[in-house]
Amino acid sequence: MESVMLDTLDQCMLHALQIDGRVPFSRIAAVLDVSDRTVARRFGRLRAAGALRVSAVPHSHVAADTQWLVRLRVHPRAATGVARTLAARHDTAWVTELSGGTEIVCLFRVPGNGAAPLAMLSAHPGIVEVTAQRLLRHLMDHRWRGRMSALTEQQLAGIHPPDTATPDPVRLTDLDRRLFRMLSADGRAACADLARQVDWSESAVRRRLTELRGAGMLLFDVEVEPALFGFSAQCLLWLSVTPSRLNTVAASLAADTETAYLGATTGRHNLLAVTLSRDAGTLYSYLSERIGALPGVEQVETAPITAYAKRFAPAQMSRAS
Description:
Oligomer: single chain
Radius of gyration: 20 Å
Protein name: Lrp/AsnC family transcriptional regulator
Domain HTH asnC-type: 172-232
Organism: Nocardia fusca
Shape: globular
Keywords: DNA-binding, Transcription, Transcription regulation
Order of helices and strands: HHHEHEHEEHEHHHHEEHEEHE
């Protein structure tokens, strides 16, 4: 990724896009009191540098897919190749390499109550061991607070997404899934471009996007490297929590700025967290003084994230088709 820095205007624009990934640049410009061209130029600069990507994905609860968290122990020399192979699959939501180059963690989404493709993974010559846990529930109803604190309440009121308080039911079609695949790559893709790729008319695409958003089916995420906000230590945590205290622990961690994601899983550990800290020292303090002091936390396994081969928002990933 090209070296970039975020100023206040960039952070405000990113916050606005996180609220509504398809909000017109003209609306962002009006809220921030700058020109449309300024917003478009800032967006283009960050995207060209590989520092920004907007993805639009179906709501995980409504899409009714099964999500599997898969941990792979790999040969060090094979790690990058395995990660790239997994990232190219349509049924992976995110793929990350962990420290040491011997482990990869990814999230699969399969239709209905389908199983993770463990047999296929085990047959890969670069993969030594495969384990899978089902992701039972997402335990955060908001995104990482570190990238959503730039706009004032008055500015937020000017960048609100479509009202989804009383959604009408929508049945997903095969054509919808083709549309999702395009939007997961570029959530701001023009309707004309989407129409050409999914072989619909532009008016049909525009109308369908309105229906999907109105039904609460389509959500947006802005992928930005946390280091640009000053958070350089990314970590996966597997926590073993006393079942009776699981909701209490999750609610407590969800309120922390360091927490980017929380999910309940099956397996030896029942809580998965993605945390962001400014450096190794603050990560140590967070683990020892914050998480270590929470009643009900029995065990914590940590693994620093060194690279993402694929990154969508865990709470709302793209569906395979």
